[in-house]
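Re: that backbone. Tokens:
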């Protein structure tokens, strides 16, 4: 999730500098997980150095844009200004994640405790930031990462909007609209998988390959792979409270783990309406049993093989997806 309030972080740190007294020794951060929201932590840790841009968020943002783009580019600067002023404005909440990563359910049937995906900004602002990023002349891998990362979040937010329409159509028992929206969301999952697969940092195949390298024997490699898969999915055994606790919107994971869960949900809802009862507790339980069984099999049986190298050009793919979903 793109979240965090840089201005509030700055206010608190500056207050600490001024009022911390003799007990104040330095700045640190104890992260429970990595590869989450890198720019927020970059800002926090850079505050340890007393430099002019660290006392002026607007100046720091311009420096960040130049660094991430590989040059001074006014479009990139404008994009990052939107991100800092309009997107990074709310504190990260516990268990916050992209909606596509959460186990599917209607709001009145929450079945994943560690899944909060609401965002406090207009997705049109994120779309404009993406448009400006794509208009920039980026020259490095950091720029490519930012394009993919912003596209991933923008599409995930859009997915949430479409799901709300699906839930409304379900309430109205509009089967035709439900089918149309379910197909749109399923296609969007493939598109999200495609854009994140352009980045080394977003590949479940690399995560698995890195884990397997710790094994001295094939059996040990399988053991480490199963554990690596478990961490980013159920965290422990099937159906436990920490399910989706460390979810990641990664290439390969979206297509083989999250997409099947959403497909199972759409099929379960359709089946409940075919049987005339609607998605009641009985059908919810049947769906829950099926989806938790699949979740465990994905990591326990080490389903699917995944590439450990990125594929595709992030900018070209993002341009196509921006055109596709801006209609």
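Recovered sequence:
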């Amino acid at each position: 999730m793109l979240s965090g309030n840089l201005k509030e972080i700055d206010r608190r740190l500056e207050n600490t500098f001024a009022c911390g007294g003799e007990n104040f020794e330095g700045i640190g951060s104890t992260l429970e997980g990595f590869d989450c929201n890198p720019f927020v932590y970059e800002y926090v840790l850079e505050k340890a150095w007393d430099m002019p841009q660290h006392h002026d968020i607007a100046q720091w943002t311009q420096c960040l844009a130049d660094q991430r783009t590989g040059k001074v580019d006014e479009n990139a600067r404008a994009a990052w200004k939107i991100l800092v002023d309009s997107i990074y404005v709310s504190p990260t909440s516990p268990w916050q994640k992209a909606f596509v990563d959460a186990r599917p359910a209607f709001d009145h049937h929450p079945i994943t405790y560690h899944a909060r995906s609401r965002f406090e900004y207009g997705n049109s602002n994120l779309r404009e930031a993406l448009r400006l990023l794509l208009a920039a002349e980026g020259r490095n891998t950091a720029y490519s990462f930012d394009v993919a990362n912003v596209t991933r979040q923008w599409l995930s937010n859009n997915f949430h909007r479409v799901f709300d329409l699906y839930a409304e159509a379900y309430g109205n028992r509009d089967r035709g609209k439900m089918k149309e929206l379910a197909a749109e969301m399923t296609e969007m999952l493939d598109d999200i998988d495609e854009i994140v697969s352009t980045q080394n940092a977003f590949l479940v195949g690399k995560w698995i390959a890195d884990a397997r390298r710790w094994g001295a024997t094939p059996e040990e490699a399988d053991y480490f792979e199963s554990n690596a898969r478990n961490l980013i999915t159920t965290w422990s055994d099937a159906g436990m409270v920490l399910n989706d606790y460390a979810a990641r919107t990664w290439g390969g994971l979206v297509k083989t783990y999250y997409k099947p869960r959403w497909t199972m949900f759409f099929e379960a809802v359709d089946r409940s309406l075919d049987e005339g009862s609607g998605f009641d507790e009985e059908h919810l339980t049947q769906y829950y049993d099926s989806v938790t069984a699949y979740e465990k099999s994905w990591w326990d049986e080490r389903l699917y093989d995944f590439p450990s190298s990125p594929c595709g050009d992030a900018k070209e793919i993002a341009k196509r997806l921006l055109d596709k979903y801006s209609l």
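The chain has one domain: 6-325. The domain at 6-325 is CATH 1.20.120.670 (Four Helix Bundle (Hemerythrin (Met), subunit A)).
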